[in-house]
Amino acid sequence: MAEPIRVVVTGAAGQIAYSLLYMIARGEVFGKDQPIILHLLDIPPMVGVLEGVVMELADCALPLLVEVKPTTDPAEGFKDVSAAFLVGAMPRKEGMERKDLLSANVKIFRTQGQALDKFAKKDVKVLVVGNPANTNALVCSSYAPSIPRENFSAMTRLDQNRATSQIAAKLGVPISAVNNIIIWGNHSSTQYPDAGQGKVTVGGAVKSVVEAVNDTSYLQGSFVETVQKRGAAVIAARKMSSAMSAAKAACDHMHDWWNGTAPGQFVSMGVFSDGSYDSPKDVIFSFPVEIKNKQWKIVSGLTLSDFAKTKLSVTGKELQEEKNEALSVLDSNVSNL
Ligand code: NAI
Question: Where does substrate bind (predicted)?
């Protein structure tokens, strides 16, 4: 058996974590031979709930789970971790302006960035799930200068999974037959779900999704809108936000980062933009990436339609605005943003 690795989940008493912790501890992310020490970080009012989660994890009798450490202290939570799922964030409350929400989250992700910088392993992989995920990841990284910025990412995998599922249903094929559906930009309603590079395997032959669907008005219309508004649709139906599917997507994201992607297959991750595809530089922008040896690389050379370019520009603009708003509430001494 390998040496155990330490993995932290923040927001550990919340609803996404309730599914996520189980999946991680079962070996679905880091492998069935990798023992895990789970750090559960939440805030002091949630200590009682955390105790219940610890009891349930014990009662699952999971062979890979070596130890569980519940804590409300970021120093303890981030100590020696190899992977961090940053799920906890300040939710939007009634009457809260976007700037107030951003400001509350900047404080949380500043503290967590500082704690990662001081206490985590230098090769820690950080996945930000808590919203606004892209900008929270940007803030977190800026307070952890000793950790490479490539190690910070934001989750758009749930959007990718939703989009892939829509295409599979439209074509009447299994999910596994559909690949390379991309989410571009922000994890928000401006994201651009793009089937333009998608591939589908039908009867052993690989076809482009565009050709197989053969319906531009669907691919540019209700497909895009359904994916963009799926989170709101789940809230309307369930009266609570997506949790099981968000946890699954977080596992998929970290699994592929850890283990790599298959040749020719790409996945969507919010990562530091290098300006590819005319996106704004130095924001956390969701791109198609390929992963090898735990390093992601933005897929280059894809041809985008004029429609796609317009959509990328809208979501890029929103990310730049979010970044400017975050900067306005950040300490003036943070210069590497
Ligand atoms: P939840 O409200 O059930 O749980 C959040 C937990 O975070 C709570 O236990 C809370 O006490 C904790 N928390 C708050 N501040 C914290 C801090 N400073 N340190 C540690 N823990 C802290 O929320 P849920 O449903 O689990 O969602 C969590 C976040 O994930 C939300 O921001 C939500 O918007 C976001 N989300 C993102 C998705 C994505 O695709 N990127 C998809 C679905 C949700």
Answer: 92, 98, 131, 162
Other Cβ atoms within 10 Å of 153 Cβ, number: 26
How is the beta sheet containing 178-179 ordered, strand by strand? 178-179, 199-202, 205-208
Asked whether the whole model's pTM tops 0.80, one would answer: yes
- Dihedral of the alpha carbons of 200, 219, 250, 243, in degrees to the nearest 10: -120
Higher per-residue confidence, 1 vs 114: 114
Q: Where in the sequence numbering do the catalytic residues fall?
A: 187
Amino acid (one-letter) located at 219? L
The rounded Å distance from CA 78 to ligand 1 centre is: 17
DSSP 278: G
Instruction: Specify whether the CB–CB gap between 106 and 139 falls below 8 A.
Output: yes
CA distance 320 to 194: 21
Local confidence band at 93 (pLDDT 50, 70, 90 cut-offs): confident
* 8 A C-beta contact, residue 192 and residue 312: yes
Nearest Cα residue to 186 out of 239, 128, 109: 128
Q: What are phi and psi of 4, to 5 degrees?
A: -65, 150
Give the pLDDT confidence of 244-266 residue by residue, as tens digits: 999 999 999 999 999 999 999 99
Q: According to the model, what pLDDT value does residue 335 have?
A: 47
**Which ligand 1 atom is the nearest neighbour of the CA of 155?**
41
Ligand 1-lining residues (CB < 6 angstroms): 10-11, 13-17, 41-43, 46, 87-89, 91, 108, 129-131, 133, 155, 158, 187, 241-243, 246
Mean pLDDT of 26-46: 98
Three-state DSSP class for 177? helix
Between the alpha carbon of residue 311 and those of residues 173, 216, 278, the distances in Å are: 28, 15, 11
Q: Mean pLDDT, to the nearest integer, of 6-24?
A: 98
Provide the residue type at 186 as one letter: N
Residue among 39, 222, 192 at smallest CA distance from 213: 222
Task: Please report, in range form, the residues annotated as the binding site.
Answer: 42, 92, 98, 105, 129-131, 162
What value does the mean pLDDT of the chain take? 95
